[in-house]
């Protein structure tokens, strides 16, 4: 018998997407930290998260928290979010696909 991951632990493995119109989409982790990436420099494209209170100080290489998604991806995540519930458990299959 296997154990399932409770809904609290499953929430730690997901990102919240906030559509910001023409600016793009913002990703938030389970602690409400924003996903960021520098636009220039040797770490260009490297992803990291920051607390929203640090955003004003985080200016090296002009990082951004706005990501452009394909319109289909926005619809897909909207569909997923509409079918999720906080009371559902996350329980992955233990069987291997042959």
What are the main properties of this structure?
single chain; alpha+beta; two-stranded antiparallel ribbon; 2 helices; 17% helix; 14% strand
Q: What features would you describe in this structure?
A:
- This protein has 98 residues and is an alpha+beta fold.
- It has a domain at 15-69.
- The chain has two helices and four strands.
- Strands 1-2 form a two-stranded antiparallel ribbon. Strands 3-4 form a two-stranded antiparallel ribbon.
- A hairpin with a 5-residue loop joins strand 1 and strand 2 (25-28).
- It is globular and about 45 Å long.
- The model has no long low-confidence stretch (mean pLDDT 78).
Shape from CA axes? Answer: globular
| Helix and strand run | HEEEEH
Query: How much β-strand is present in the residues?
Result: 5-15%
List segments where confidence is low: pLDDT < 50 over at least 5 consecutive residues: none
**Structural class label:** alpha+beta
Query: What's the total helix number?
Result: 2
Can you give the helix content as a percent range?
10-25%
- Rg is 17 Å
Number of strands: 4
Largest sheet: 2 strands, antiparallel
- Mean pLDDT metric: 78
Order of strands across the main sheet: 1-2
Termini gap: 21 Å
In a nutshell, what does this entry contain?
This protein is of the alpha+beta class and 98 residues long. It contains 2 helices and 4 strands. The strands form 2 sheets. Strands 1-2 form a two-stranded antiparallel ribbon.
């Amino acid at each position: 018998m296997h154990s399932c991951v409770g809904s609290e632990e499953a929430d730690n493995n997901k990102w919240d997407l906030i559509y910001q119109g023409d600016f793009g989409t913002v990703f938030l982790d389970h602690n409400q930290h924003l996903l960021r990436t520098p636009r220039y420099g040797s770490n260009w494209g490297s992803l990291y998260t920051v607390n929203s209170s640090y955003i004003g100080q985080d200016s090296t290489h002009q990082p951004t928290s706005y990501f452009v998604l394909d319109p289909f991806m926005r619809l897909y995540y909207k569909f997923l979010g509409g079918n999720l519930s906080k009371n559902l458990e996350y329980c992955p299959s233990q069987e291997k696909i042959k």
